[in-house]
Amino acid sequence: MINTISAEIQRAEIENDRQFVTALARGLGILSVFENSNIALTHQMICERTKLPKATVSRLIYTLLCTEFLAQDPDGGYRLGMAAIRISATAWAQYDLIRHAQPLMAAFAAEHHVSVNIAKEEGGEMLYLACCRSPARLAVQLMVGSKVPAAQTAIGRAYYAVADDFQRAHLRRHLPPLPEMETAQQLEMLAGHEAFYREHGYTLSAGEFSPDILAVAVGVYNRAEQRYTHALNASVPASRWQEADFVREIVPGLQKLAQEISAA
C-alpha cells in the first residue's frame, strides 16, 4: 500500500495536481505501514518504511496521536489507534457480501463443474476476493489475492460495464499498461464489452487472458453501497466446452447467483 501512495505523491508533484493534498497522503502513508504488522513500530522504522524525513514523520505522528489514529505503547513504539480500528471495523463489515457469497458460489461450482470467482477493482486490475475451484484443472490457477487485467478478462469487463462514472474514471486512470496492448486499446476493448453487456447481460472472455480459459461474468450489486462494486465469473477449460453451449447453460444461472449474492 505504501508503494501505491508514494507513487501517487510523485505523480501529483510531476503533474502539479492542485487538488491533491500531499500532507494527507503522507499521513495515510504512515498508517499504511502498519499493514500486516503485528508489532509496534518505532519512529525509525516508520521513517525507513515511508522514506520520509524524520521531522516530517514526527509532525505526522503527533497529529495522528492527537486524532487517535495512532496510539503510543509504554515502550515508545506506535500502533494503530482506536479511530483507525473503528474505521477498519466499518470497512470489514462491507465484506459481509463476500461471506454471504462463498457458500452460494461453492454450491454453483459443484453443480455446474465450473470455477467461480468474485472480485473487485483495485489499482486498475481485478482483485480476487473469493474463489471456488472446479475439479477440472485450469492452466492458470487463481486464488484469493490474485489480480487479473480488466480488459482481457470477463470479470474485468463485467465490472467496467456495470460501474458508475466515478468507478470507470478511477479504473481508466489506474489501468496498468500491458506488454501486448496499449492503454488506448484496452479502453476501446472495455467500451465494446460494455455495449455487449448492455445488450446481453454478461461478458465473455474466450482465450484472451489465457488460451485455455473460457469465462463469462456478470456484475454484482452491493445494496449497502447502492451501486455495483463487484463482478462474478464462471470459468472452465476451453477444450471441454463449446462457447455457445457454455453461454447457454451457465449464464442464466450465473445471473441468478449474482442476484442472490446481492440480496445479502
UniProtKB/TrEMBL annotation:
Keyword line: DNA-binding, Transcription, Transcription regulation
Transmembrane domains' residue ranges: none
Occurrences of domain HTH iclR-type (ranges): 21-82
Domain IclR-ED: 83-264
Annotated PROSITE patterns: HTH_ICLR, ICLR_ED
InterPro entries in the cross-refs: GAF-like_dom_sf, HTH_MetabolicPath_Reg, Tscrpt_reg_IclR_C, Tscrpt_reg_IclR_N, WH-like_DNA-bd_sf, WH_DNA-bd_sf
MF annotations from Gene Ontology: DNA binding; DNA-binding transcription factor activity
GO biological process: negative regulation of DNA-templated transcription
Protein name per its UniProtKB record: IclR family transcriptional regulator
